[in-house]
Amino acid sequence: MGSIPSPGTSPSNLMDEPLNFCSNCGASVALTIPPGDHLPRFVCRTCGTIHYQNPRLVLGCVPVWEDRILLCRRAIEPRRGYWTVPAGFMENGESLEQAAARECQEEANASVEIGSLLAVASVTHASQVHVMFRARLLDPEFSAGPESEAVGLYREEDVPWGEIAFPSGEFTLRRFYADRKAGREDYHFTVLDRPLKR
Amino acid sequence: MGSIPSPGTSPSNLMDEPLNFCSNCGASVALTIPPGDHLPRFVCRTCGTIHYQNPRLVLGCVPVWEDRILLCRRAIEPRRGYWTVPAGFMENGESLEQAAARECQEEANASVEIGSLLAVASVTHASQVHVMFRARLLDPEFSAGPESEAVGLYREEDVPWGEIAFPSGEFTLRRFYADRKAGREDYHFTVLDRPLKR
Questions:
Q1: Can you spell out the DSSP letters for A143-176?
Q2: DSSP per position, B69-113
Q3: Residue A32 CA from chain centroid, whole number
Q4: Residue A143 burial by CB count (10 A; 0-12/13-18/19+): exposed, middle or buried?
Q5: DSSP annotation of A55
Q6: Which one of A47, A153, B111, B180 has the fewest CB atoms closer than 10 angstroms to its CB?
Q7: How far apart are CA A191 and CA A125, in angstroms?
Q8: What is the H or E stretch that residue B49 is in?
Q9: Residue A76 in contact with partner chain B when CB distance is under 8 A
Q10: Taking CB atoms and an 8 Å limit, are B12 and A90 in contact across chains?
Q11: Which tens digits make up the pLDDT trace of A89-115?
């Protein structure tokens, strides 16, 4: 839960993009707790605009074709060369399901129908929320998009478990297979609060 | 899904806070599609920082005490004087459940245990995602926080249906009662794409 950070620490609610100047008027900003608020915010010294920084949503899915799932090998940092379910930042103006399907199209040139909710991870150290759906691959046509160096369909025993890019991806895949064995489609919440070990 | 807006329109992915100047270096920004991207972004003309704008998360819950639920009458705009489930913007560094419980504490001085996922609304016109949980009020002690002008426990027949502040709140409450009648605790997704009529 939000708390006021000690001086000299990096406040967990402010670990976002650089905020040195007001995006409204261009003047400098000060880190201060606005009246009625309980957390420090970047506030413009000139026009008074309060610049809130909030968690970003990452949307993804597990695309299924018969007994295989689609995974992408990342062509970009972070975690270049590691494997991931297709996922990325949600854009303004789209729904959760549209974001998940768009990311699959962009990263794997693959068309999916989004299904049930599978996993939701509060990634607190990165101030992100990852939302993952089950999905049905509409046809087995796909290819690597610009952010992927390879894309493939994998059976459970062939999933490269030791080379999964992010903890939320491993959580998602573990729950996917556990539910599939049990004949369920539950949803699963988790909190991931530690950066990756390199 | 994101698409490139016509000139002169207000791009749906850019309806956030004012972005005239670079928050990193203070120089002016230009609206342009960065290399490898597919949507216009505000990009600094001097240091090149790309300023992404993404949907914000609003977290809330339906706190239950015996056969009643807790509702708050808003003391602030928008929709001052209308009723809402306790809800508000998620902060960096907290989990979804922590955000929902914190908002209930702030708006109603009420302590809850967060339960199952109830409703998720992609509020596309506002570039927000609203996530609502069921919750158990831990004791029937509560009072209006600074953003509420009244807080109360209501039976279903006493819910002020005509005075609910936001469509996501009405969606949440309707599904809550429908599930309760059916003896279920399902989750419900919706897309809300039109601003409120005033």
A1: ---TTEEEEEEE-GGGS-GGGBS-HHHHHHHHHH
A2: EEEEEESSSSSTT-EE-SEEEPPTT--HHHHHHHHHHHHH---EE
A3: 29
A4: exposed
A5: P
A6: A47
A7: 10
A8: none
A9: no
A10: no
A11: 999 999 999 999 999 999 999 999 999
Band (A18; pLDDT cuts 50, 70, 90): confident
Place of tokens 């706190």: B63
Task: List the one residue out of B49, B125, B63, B30 whose CA is nearest residue A18.
Answer: B49
C-alpha span between A140 and A162 (Å, rounded): 25
Q: Which of residues 54-73 of B touch A (CB under 8 A)?
A: 54-57
* Mean per-residue pLDDT pooled into runs of 10, chain B (198 residues): 30 60 96 92 95 96 98 96 98 97 98 98 96 97 97 98 97 98 98 76
Note whether B92 contacts A120, CB cutoff 8 Å: no
Average pLDDT of the residues of chain A: 91
Four-residue CA torsion sign, B124, B129, B133, B139: negative
pLDDT band at residue A139 under the 50/70/90 scheme: very high
Domain parsing of chain A, residue ranges = 16-53, 56-192
| Mean pLDDT along residues A132-160 | 97
Q: Does the CB of A144 have a partner CB in chain B at under 8 Å? A: no
B120 touches chain A (CB under 8 A): yes
> Token match 């599609």: residue?
B33
Q: Does domain A16-53 have CATH number 3.40.630.30?
A: no
Residues above pLDDT 70, as percent of chain A: 89
- Cα–Cα distance measured from residue A132 to residue A130, given in angstroms and rounded to the nearest whole number: 7
Confirm or reject contact between A189 and chain B (CB < 8 A). yes
3-state DSSP call for residue A179?
helix
ipTM confidence score: 0.90
pLDDT tens track for A164-192: 999 999 999 999 999 999 999 999 999 99
What is the assigned CATH class of domain B56-192? Answer: alpha beta
Query: Residues of A92-124 as b/e, b for ≥16 C-beta within 10 angstroms?
Result: bbbbbbbbbbbbbebbbebbbebbebbbbbbbb
Contacting B residues, span 147-186, partner chain A, CB-CB under 8 Å: none
Does A5 contact B at CB distance below 8 Å? no
Top CATH class, B14-54: mainly beta
- Tell me the pTM: 0.91
Which chain B positions have a beta carbon within 8 Å of A127's beta carbon? 92-93
